[in-house]
Amino acid sequence: MSKKTLVIGASTDPTRYAFLAANRLLNHGHEIELIGRDQGKIGGKEIQVTKSELEGVDTVTMYISPKRQPEYYDYIVGLKPKRVIFNPGTENPEFESLLAKNKIEPLHACTLVMLSTGQY
Fold first, then answer.
1. How many whole angstroms separate alpha carbon 54 and alpha carbon 51?
2. Which residues is 60 bridged to in the sheet?
3. For the segment 11-37, what is each residue's pLDDT rounded down to a tens digit?
4. Cβ partners under 8 Å of residue 61, min gap 6
5. pLDDT of residue 1
6. Which segments in the chain show pLDDT lower than 70?
């Protein structure tokens, strides 16, 4: 089943995990939305540099450091995703607590591993 996924920290740099995850999500048939610092495209999808209104987001996968996350707290909670994946290095207890209070599942996981093992 396809899960619409928002990749925060998207990059066109092919050495970045966010780039690899976005492409792997597409290869697995998931619809993606992308937010990053710089404009560009991944798999034909535009990287947005602003927080745009989105509908039907199932999963948010984080590729930004905890110190950059506070500006996204309200935005992500407002999207009402089912879960937020904190990829290695993005773990944030403060944000995870806020998500849990809003009935959004915080996950310490790796999107790439989840996709490769069929757990996504």
1. 9
2. 6, 84
3. 999 999 999 999 999 999 999 999 999
4. 5, 6, 7, 8, 21, 84, 85, 87, 111
5. 77
6. none
Element containing residue 55 per DSSP (H, E): none
Task: Specify the residue for token string 């996709």.
Answer: 115
Beta pairing class for 59-62 and 83-86: parallel
d(Cα 49, Cα 114) in Å, to the nearest integer? Answer: 26
Pairing of strands 32-35, 83-86: unpaired
DSSP string covering 74-113? HHHHHH--SEEEE-TT---HHHHHHHHHTT-EEEE--HHH
**Residue whose pair of structure tokens reads 């209070």 in the numeric block:** 101
